[in-house]
Amino acid sequence: MTDRQIMTGDEIRRAIVRISHEIVEKQAGTQGLALVGIQRRGVPLAKRVADAIEEHEGVRVPVGALDITFYRDDLSLVAQQPIVKGTDLPFDLNGATVVLVDDVLYTGRTIRCAMDALIDFGRPRAIRLAVLIDRGHRELPIRADHVGKNVPTSREEIVKVHVAETDGCDEVSIARQVRAPETGAAADETGTAGN
């Protein structure tokens, strides 16, 4: 695979600051607002958005973490023993405007699972979506309200988001899978697309 960087740490920081302003503007303030990061990289991104909101609004909005492992429609394909990262929602969802935060929006299936999981914990007034990267290729009618960067991709590419909290650095890159030369009449036509 060959990796090409598409966002630096500074570009990620600026995107998060812009998203934080958009969220507050759409909400017309911070009243009733809560952020919920989708495990795993959505959680530190949600905390960073909350930090940015606190910096320019002087208010700390509540932040939670949502694990969607058991809501996935491909759970049997993921692993025999899936790793559960945990859900932590230290606030009342009922009547709140919840902004789901994730690193990459791709098919939309992760977000559908996240909405199902969230509704099991309460009835928000509204659910919105903020993502660092929107790479296209939707399979469900889901779109992000706030996007750090739109990145046209092919299905053969993998978008890799690295955040300092889990990966030691901040960057986004795209890797293109290099296929092995065909050796037989029936070449493998599957391609992993990632995220």
Report on this structure.
The chain has 195 residues and is of the alpha/beta class. It has one domain (9-155): Rossmann fold. The chain is built from 5 helices and 8 strands, in the order βαβαβαβαβββαβ. It has helices spanning 9-27, 42-57, 75-78, 109-119, 164-167, and strands at residues 2-7, 33-38, 63-66, 97-105, 126-134, 146-150, 157-162, 171-176. α1 packs across α2. The protein is globular, with a radius of gyration of 18 Å.
Structure keywords:
five-stranded parallel beta sheet, 28% helix, disordered C terminus
Number of domains: 1
Distance between the termini: 16 Å
Q: What does the average pLDDT come to?
A: 88
Q: Pairing-aware structural class of the strands and helices?
A: alpha/beta
Number of strands: 8
- CA radius of gyration is 18 Å
What is the topology, as strand order, of the major beta sheet?
3-2-4-5-6
**Tally of DSSP helical segments:** 5
Label the CATH architecture: 3-Layer(aba) Sandwich
Helix fraction?
25-40%
Following the backbone from N to C, one meets helices and strands in this order, namely EHEHEHEHEEEHE
Estimate the global geometry from the Cα principal axes. Answer: globular
Summarize the helices and strands and which ones pair or pack.
Layout lengths: L1 E6 L1 H19 L5 E6 L3 H16 L5 E4 L8 H4 L18 E9 L3 H11 L6 E9 L11 E5 L6 E6 L1 H4 L3 E6 L19
Brief write-up:
This protein has helices at residues 9-27, 42-57, 75-78, 109-119, 164-167; strands at 2-7, 33-38, 63-66, 97-105, 126-134, 146-150, 157-162, 171-176. The protein has 195 residues and is of the alpha/beta class. The radius of gyration is 18 Å and the shape is globular.
